[in-house]
């Protein structure tokens, strides 16, 4: 077996060791496991999926009934759609690069941008249940993020603000409007904003 293969197995087993024992974890439990993993960019290179025409390539590294761990490889200058994480909460760790991170307030059914931060390399931020947010790699550099959620994401809602619509997407879809019909579990027409007086 070549060295790349050994590295792949080593990191996969580290992920399993850190997360497999978590049952109904708290946000603190998740963060401690994430910190214990001590992930570096080199660990993730064998797992990076090409974004293609999407905001990011995504790969599930680990999943149990209680926890999901994913890595995302971001395209340059491409913002993902505003989205929630269904009934899950979790942590996002910026392994490489910098991310603009916008959180939204819900006005009736519509997400309205509330705050935009720059999440620096090495930073982690918490994503509570029901938070609607988006992320973007605004630089020319590679951006890689590691995501841990409890429980595994199900019922994620993705918003298309131009169409005033939302869509509940399947577990294998990321934060973009699904291209495949099978990934569109339910489409929701949102109420239009009332015109300013």
TrEMBL record:
<dbReference type="InterPro" id="IPR011051">
    <property type="entry name" value="RmlC_Cupin_sf"/>
</dbReference>
<comment type="similarity">
    <text>Belongs to the cysteine dioxygenase family.</text>
</comment>
<keyword id="KW-0560">Oxidoreductase</keyword>
<dbReference type="Pfam" id="PF05995">
    <property type="entry name" value="CDO_I"/>
</dbReference>
<dbReference type="InterPro" id="IPR010300">
    <property type="entry name" value="CDO_1"/>
</dbReference>
<dbReference type="GO" id="GO:0051213">
    <property type="term" value="F:dioxygenase activity"/>
</dbReference>
<protein>
    <submittedName>
        <fullName>Cysteine dioxygenase</fullName>
    </submittedName>
</protein>
<keyword id="KW-0479">Metal-binding</keyword>
<keyword id="KW-0408">Iron</keyword>
<keyword id="KW-0223">Dioxygenase</keyword>
<dbReference type="InterPro" id="IPR014710">
    <property type="entry name" value="RmlC-like_jellyroll"/>
</dbReference>
